[in-house]
Amino acid sequence: PPNDETPMETEEQKPTAAERLRPAECDFFRDRACIELARSSWDRPEFKHYLQGCRWSPDGTCVLTVVNDDGMHIVELPTDLYDKEAIGEDRPVDVLTSAVHVKRGAHVYDYAWYPGMNSLQPETCCWIASRRHEPIHLWDAFTGQLRCSYKGYDQFDEVNPALSVLFSPDDGSTIYGGYVKSIKSFDLNIPGREKTSWSLKSTASCLAMAFSMPQTIVYGSWNRHIAVLDTRSGEQIAVSKNPHNAGVTWVGFEPDREELFVSGARKDSKICLWDVRHLTGPVRVLQRTCANNQRVHLDFSPRGQWLVSGDTRGILQAWNLRELDSEGCPKQLSFPLHHDSLNGVSFHPTAPILATSTGQEHFTLPASTAEGDGDDDDDTDQSTTSATPTQPGVKQPKIENSLTLWWIGKALLSDG
């Protein structure tokens, strides 16, 4: 018979399989080093193949990235890195090749993996993406073929593109799209028209949802607006004091403490940490360099101990949210990894590996144009960042369009 004094282990106390696989994050960045593991580059600057972020698949077998004017690419994790506990700095750098390539099409606004993706179950291997002038498409991660589409309609009954996309994090059965002045939901199993639509006062340029709060959506907007939407009632609560001075391009919940979420904006050095229960102002403000109009990604480590951010100087910024300095701020580490804008960061779900993506659009102007002709028209794309005259003696910016994998765990470093 069971011992009555022994407490019963409830389902809530038992760690899930995903939790058991999560790495020990106290070892992340412990050696103050990031060891390059593998890289894929788009080296011809005349094609302007800069990358637009990157995201690990939920099972950690591959990385999805978007390349300007070259479609969407999936690269696979090198097989020798499975179940590694430490890496030596003398390990050769692998060259990554695309296992799946969706050819160039319209500009990609946003993309997201199906949260239940498992490479052992091909039917789960898919992602959604939204492109200019197109509905949300569901793509097959094995073949690169289009599976189906989800169409959001405006007040004139015309199909509109979603500017941001999201799967429901609990089971992935619902797709959410952020549109101009609306958020729409779709049933994953019923392609076609939206299931529900919520009207907004601003454009939903980015979306986030916590696993423990499947009826709550946090969204940001190009007009600096940040708000919380209750999908049951349609009620919306906006933050009252928003320190961002430009359009919000990123929001995301902390995995371990899902009452907290983070936001970032274009051309804004501030990263704001918020408590969804008290939206009067940010809990904490961190700093990075974001000097262009790109969507510079942020990411939390699987257990929520670390927050990392891209940086337009090519520097990886990392904050240990569990260790504070003498001023009560999270300890910050900086790693100069790239020569161009670091726009994408993504933690591997079960290993101490970080993926980064780089690049931006560089304008090269003739000397006569660089000197100025009195025309100040600004009609550039939102991802453009720099204009450089082709004059002798003028230092040209370094162009780096790459997807890189880095080891951030225990390292076998030489004494030298």
From TrEMBL:
Residues 382-393 have a biased composition (Low complexity). One of its GO terms (biological process) is Cajal body organization. Residues 365-398 are annotated as: Disordered. It comes from the Eukaryota. Gene3D superfamilies: YVTN repeat-like/Quinoprotein amine dehydrogenase (2.130.10.10). GO terms for molecular function: RNA binding. Residues 372-381 have a biased composition (Acidic residues). GO terms for cellular component: Cajal body. InterPro entries: SWT21/TCAB1_mRNA_Telomere, WD40/YVTN_repeat-like_dom_sf, WD40_repeat_dom_sf, WD40_rpt. Belongs to the TCAB1 family. This is WD repeat-containing protein 79. It comes from Anopheles triannulatus.
